[in-house]
Amino acid sequence: MPDMPTTDAALETHLADTKDARLESYKAFLRIPSISTLPEHADDCRTAAHWLVDALTAAGLEHAEAVETGGHPIVYADWLHAPDAPTVLIYGHYDVQPVDPLDLWTSPPFEPAVVGDRILARGAADDKGQVHAHVMAAGAVMATRGSFPINVKYIFEGEEESSTEHLDHWLETARDKLAADVAIISDTGFFEGNRPAITLSLRGLMYAQIDVVGTAVDLHSGVYGGAVQNPANALAVIIAGLKGPDGRIRVPGFYDDVVPLSEADRAALAALPFDEDAYQARLGLPALVGEAGFTTLERRATRPTLDVNGIWGGFEGEGSKTIIPAHAHAKVSCRLVAAQDPDRIFEAFRAYVEAIAPPGVTTTVQHLGSGFPSLTPMDHPATQAAARALEATFGQAPVYIREGGSIPVSASFGSILGLPVVLMGFTPPDENAHAPNEWMDLNNYETSIRAIARVFDELVDLPR
Ligand SMILES: [Zn+2]
Question: 224-259 pLDDT, tens per residue?
């Protein structure tokens, strides 16, 4: 750690002098309706990508380009003149979600409105606000110091809200160019109120379909009932066998690779402000259930799951039809945690389903999809560097949270580029992402720029 004061005076002066221009720039970026999933906005996505190329170049970064991938461009830029220092890869996305229902917006989604401390617009938080903060932080560092203390590489994607279809392929082909020591993803937010947060982990996914087939057509249950296996009954037997009454998944080997929670992990989760009764009341449920031995917060983000997502077969209409269905099906998914391998989990799942399938029918299991989990522990040096930067700038130590869902790029940075990932995001917990009246807190936006500038200094001593 170089001799840096907690507040860099030159940086503060620069940021104060440029505050109004920065807000105008933020608004200009938000005015571009870069909705990635709608074909009629393809040109707008391209416009947003080129807007970023220009902004990154103006910030003093090099090799800024909009890389053509077959879909919306990926924006890349770097600054690589710190030969003995670590390299950080920074990720955000410039595309946004559609805006309907339009009538619920209090101001037009692509006409940014400042209301008090808030700026309202589609993308204000997810994720253009965070992307913009990164570009502004880079510009402020270069304007005040003329160099970065570490090497930086930027990737701003344009397909995160639609498919992320072309990113992984590009990561594979650009692996050498993207070599780094750590990745920072800014596409998450705070847990509660205004206290900063670092997201330590995301869950992965294994998705499968079970098909149980008997005869070619439905059978008369009076003529054949009792003499043949019923595919729907057989499917029910299989599903009932997947989990025990203690909530444990019975697939042999399922938990073998799960990284156990440390005492410190459990303490950090227990310290989060979380009202279990309010959570239950909001869901309108008579009870919360889950794997024995774990709290609700642990169950919903740090433990793997198995859920039936859909089940069908036989007669589903009004009234009654006395048949033995020809076939029955279920879609089943598992949320996975580090270090479970989704493909190995699928193989174990298939083998177990086939082993417990009742006789007299044909049972097969299809693999519908996979996603890797990701985890960067609390005590990882990169996590701690981010924590110091957040505490120095926001005035409070961050809380450590875990997400039950997935951000596929996080797993890709791990599996394709071999990088630890720090999920350092700045959006409010109730920012209305993907919904009408999306907003960002302008004070936090400003502080996030200081935090980003600070994390470069904190990463200087990252072990490599
Ligand atoms: Zn996002």
Answer: 999 999 999 999 999 999 999 999 999 999 999 999
How many Cβ atoms are within 10 Å of 275's Cβ, its own excluded? 9
Element containing residue 74 per DSSP (H, E): strand 74-79
Return the closest-CA partner of residue 134 out of 444, 460, 461, 450.
450
Residues lining ligand 1 (ion), CB within 5 A?
A: 126-127, 187
Pinpoint the alpha helices (H) of 215-356.
Answer: 221-224, 231-240, 263-270, 276-283, 296-301, 342-356
CA-closest candidate to residue 186, choices 134, 124, 119, 118: 134
Q: How far is the CA of 325 from the centre of ligand 1 (A)?
A: 44
Are the C-beta atoms of 268 and 387 separated by less than 8 Å?
no
- CA distance between the termini of the chain: 15
**Alpha-carbon distances of 211 from 99, 234, 328, rounded to whole Å:** 38, 10, 6
Cα–Cα dist 249/426, whole Å: 35
87 and 149 Cβ atoms separated by less than 8 Å: no
Cα of 450 vs centre of ligand 1, distance in Å, is: 21
How many helices, marked H, and strands, marked E, lie in the chain?
14, 18
CB-CB contact of 41 with 33 (8 Å): yes
For residue 239, count other CB atoms closer than 10 A to its CB. 17
232: which 2 tokens? 């729907």
Ligand 1 center to 298 CA (angstroms): 24
CA of 127 to the centre of ligand 1 (A): 5
The rounded Å distance from CA 197 to ligand 1 centre is 16
**Three-class DSSP category at 206:** strand
- The token pair at 185 is 């993803």
Distance 439 CA to ligand 1 centre (A): 13
Pick from 457, 214, 174, 436: which is nearest to 323 by CA? 214
pLDDT tens figures, 148-184: 999 999 999 999 999 778 999 999 999 999 999 999 9
Q: Judge if the upstream peptide bond of residue 398 is cis by omega within 30 degrees of 0.
A: no
